[in-house]
Amino acid sequence: MKTLLIIRHAKAEAGYGLRDFDRALSDRGRNDALMMAGKISDKKISIDIFISSPAKRTTQTAQLFCKTLHKSEDGIIFINDLYHAPSGTFYEAVENIDDRFSVTAIFGHNPGVTDFVNSLVKEVNIDNMPTCGIFAITANIKSWKKFSAAEKAFYF
Q1: Verdict on whether the full-model pTM lies above 0.90
Q2: Domain at 133, CATH number
Q3: Which residues constitute the domain of residue 84?
């Protein structure tokens, strides 16, 4: 059994004069990330691996999740292609996860996050994944390489 948590980065500052890639989390974003990571902790979910876009706001969101969940920030895997990635790039990232990891969190951006979530389970169709929103699914597979074709179930 594999579990995937798809997390949109938390709220970022407007970033006037900054490149989009360099926008940092706002105070609200930091608070939301800590709160949502706390909800994962409350559910006693132990994340094995963290994968993130390297943009500043996704990096900071992933780091706050690591901090709250008592995981090393050094273990975050950054994938350049996840920056404003389409849903297909998320599938590629997931299918390249080492099979020794059962629970994965992947941090990204809209509209790719929303498109990816909507492609996972037929019963789900969301208009917009909110900032710091979490969508979790399970797949009864032993290898992440079988993720795309696997039947998936909404976890929370």
Answers
A1: yes
A2: 3.40.50.1240
A3: 2-154
Q: How far apart are CA 156 and CA 81, in angstroms?
A: 26
Name the residue with tokens 């706002």. 26
Q: For 43, which DSSP code?
A: T
- Reading phi first (left if > 0) and then psi (alpha if -120 to 50, else beta), residue 70 is in left
- How many domains are contained in the chain? 1
**Is 59 in contact with 76 (CB distance < 8 Å)?**
yes
Contact at 8 Å (CB) between 64 and 94?
Answer: no
Say which residue the tokens 């699914």 belong to. Answer: 137
Q: Which helix (H) or strand (E) holds 59?
A: helix 56-68
The helix/strand/coil state of 29 is helix
Query: ω into residue 111 within 30 of 0, thus cis?
Result: yes
- CA atoms 83, 18, 49, 5: torsion sign: negative
Q: In this predicted model, what pLDDT tens digit does every residue of 26-55 receive, in sequence order? A: 999 999 999 999 999 999 999 999 999 999
